[in-house]
Amino acid sequence: MKKSIIIITLAAQSILVYGQNAAPANWFNLDPKINKVNGVSTERTYNELLAGKSSQKVIVAVIDGGTDVVHEDLKRLIWINMREIPNNKIDDDNNGYVDDINGWNFIGGQQQNVAEDNLEVTRLYKQLKARYEKVDTNSLDGVEKDNYAFYKKVKATYTKGYSEYAMYNNIYTSLEKGVTSLSTNLGKDSLSMAEFKSYKPVDMNESMAHNSISKSFSASKKNYVVISKFSKGLQGAKEQISKFVDYHYNLDFDSRNIVGDNYEVATERFYGNNKVSEPNGEHGTHVAGIIAADRNNGLGIKGVSDQAEIMVLRVVPDGDERDKDVANAIRYAVDNGAKVINMSFGKAFSPYKNVVDEAVLYALSKDVLLVHAAGNDHKNLEIENNYPNDKVTNYNASNWIEVGASSWKNKKLIPADFSNYGKQSVDVFAPGVDINSCIPDNKYESFNGTSMASPVTAGVAAVLRSYYPALSAAEVKEIIMQSAIKVKGKVLIPGTKKKVKMNDLCVSGGIVNLYEAVKLAEVKIQNKK
Hints:
single chain; Rossmann fold; 2 domains; seven-stranded parallel β-sheet; two-stranded antiparallel sheet; 12 helices; 36% helix; globular
């Protein structure tokens, strides 16, 4: 699932002054020495090291929720399956997927596409509840005792999550009622802060809304209040919360019937449709833009790679992705020429992990690099799980890079406060805060997340694989790790006030850097001769 933190905010609060709270434009491509910001040195690399060098196209698969293939900054860079004749309803290349022109949608059916889905914990709890809710625990043998213990863990996780979001849903419903009442009783939308604070709420709902509005505008250092602005932010937050209650944690909701596969057969491969752009294309479009947005069209932003072609693979709904779909997307990408795969998603449970592991090993056998987002829950992945991961058949896959998110800020604030981390479980950090990129309908927006850090790294990998095609996937990973800019001093552990060295948060102890990676790649290529 593409997780984000839900907060009530105002549009005005995101308009900040660079030098205080706002990131500089294009910061993830800037250079630590020249620009004094912890980007990955993309612009410097093209200007100083890659100018005039030969390169070749490299296919980067974006496994996500869909990508806008006609976006002004991406349309020239979307992968086209030249072996397939568009829209003739024939599998021309005999790969099992009809009219797969730009990729494939593994969560689509004949009539519609999956939009919302459960979290994996909900699916697991529903399945296990039927078996263990009323079981006589005295009758359980060794294996069944272990299964029952797992059920109890799943139930506890589900119950905690559902209760939390049900509580938020009730709070936001009360806030909505309070805001509506305030607006009616005050008789106007815009008031001075003094005038607003002098108003006496008539009930609990109004009191809650009055307090929240006062705090929000005070925090943004405004001396006025605009109720409609708060209401708009509240509505967006309420919609997000409602999805958790209505879909993600709803035991009675199941959208898989749309797909029409036999879901119990985890190895089934050929299902879905070719509609790769909808309905949840915002996240995947943003990811694709970071990797490959057109660097030469004078529009929007500049992606990291100037030679990437984006293959679109849709597996992530508004909810948790399913292992079966992830495995099939990896296999599709490998079989259709991708050399780098970006995966900006993750979840806490993986009931068919073995199927995903087999796909990861298949990618390894075909020299394909997998880049994965570490997650946004400020968790230590040494003790908590985030799937999928590189731990396959008792060893770590050498073609896998796990990426945490870094900020443009300096010193102790370099790790993003939301990023997952792990001394051995996360390989490297990369820019993932205030990242401006593409969203559908030729628009652009700034997002936060390891979901952004992963494609920054995938873009760096794509540059290495396009300019130095003799490098293997494992060598590209090794170069990215070894060339990472080491962070000096101590930094804050995400989500805490405690300071540690950066190598306590990731294996490399540093931030991805294309400039240093290209210099190291040159050395490795020369040594191969």
